[in-house]
Amino acid sequence: MLIRISVLGLATFVLLLSAIERPATAGASQESGGVVTFYKDVLPILQKNCQSCHRPGQIGPMSLLSYKEARPWTKAIKTAVVTKKMPPWFADPRYGHFNNDRSLKPAEIETLVAWADSGAVEGNPKDAPVPIRWPADGWQIQPDVFVDLPPYSVPARGVKEWEQLAIPSPFLEDTWVTSVEVLPGQPAVVHHFCFNFEKHKPTTDYNVYEWMEVPRDEDGVSKDRVRGVDTKEGIVIRREVGSTEETRRPGQQTIRGGNQFCYLPGLPYEDYRPVNAGVFVPAGSDIVMSLHYTPNGAAVIDRTRIGFTVAKVPPAKRFVPQDGEEGENAPVVRRHAIRELAIPPYESNYLGPAAEITFLKDLELVWFRPHAHMRATSVQYKLTYPDGREEIVLNVPRYDFNWQLTYRTSLKIPKGSRMHVEFRYDNSANNKYNPNPGKWVYYGDQSWEEMGTPNIGFLVDRGTDEDFKNRR
Ligand code: HEC
Out of 2.60.120.230, 3.30.230.10, 3.30.230.30, 2.60.40.3230, which CATH number does the structure's domain 317-472 have? Predict the structure, then answer.
């Protein structure tokens, strides 16, 4: 069996991050005339805002756990926080309220600057906060259950299309999953890794990668503006896990991974424990994945893992993933002519086709995860309440493809509200990420083609949840 499944104990897991919330100490120490020191003033900030990425095994290029490790980076830390490059956070502070807002408060920036400017004093280790006990093996959550995916050889070069893969889920009984983390083996080449839980279908073969052939020009741009994943008919290519042999046949794909859960660069994990919610996974479901690797010059073998925490008692609320494009989820309908996106060469401020989402039920919106590619520059979500009142609920004035962030919130949306979402794009040479300003840019899977997906996730009350009752 290629999929190794390990069920660890169901020990109650206390969310570590909540235990380390502490008020900024900066102002106090400066007022008291004390010297700004690493242990007393700086380390609490690093713990709260930086160490989730800056510790061994995570995406940050250096560890900021100890004085010894942080000391050589003093100047770089000052620059990074003053320019707001770090920590990565792009929501306009004038709109919305986000419970995972990791941006630094002005007093915290002042503390880091004062520390750097006054000789990076170490101070007394006795002043240090209790070290955070980070989960082992690189996880952010401490999974109760995890799945090891089969090793995947990513070539040094070439274009990989979106591939689909199905495996049995590790849950043999009905289960409420309360958090999910995808831990990529080789983060540098994983562009996305998304999956849905799905009822097993007789046509679903396990452990076979499946993708559509997409004819591309010499720049890798899809020739017929037909997107691989959405192509209804075409050449389907299949390859068994562990084999290099590919079979081709005309027709349709037999499986299609959704994006109920996703790994994207900068997006660490989904966690519904703080909001007492979960995802119901019926016994014997499949995990159907969509994988997208982006070769970056060196051949590597990726070994991605998926970890889950599970609830012993059903949580009060059910998480409903982002809306399907054709309104597959009953509570919302999304209209979005995104395939009409066509950005002229050198156009510096192109407004993409807007998405219109209608809410058919009272909902609690718990996250936004706007997704676009290299030419995207901004995104804005505007909500119109049934009484006509308008509110900007998320504004990202500086969209950065390299940071696919989730903005977590708690926004009560009454039935009958509408959301309008706009992405803007810069196809000029001023956009430093633009691979080629001289080209028309259309909708497509690859990062040099464009997207503009207004992903959202929400909660419904389990007690009044008709869809859930009908499904059981
Ligand atoms: C979400 C993960 C994440 C968080 C949180 C984060 N960083 Fe980073 N940091 C990175 C990554 C990845 C890089 C390298 C890529 C880049 O520079 O964008 C980086 C780069 C840096 C650099 C530049 C290193 C160099 O080569 O010059 C500094 C300095 C830095 N971070 C400091 C911080 C500080 C201070 C905090 C907290 C206030 C912080 N980071 C929070 C992920 C993170």
Answer: 2.60.120.230
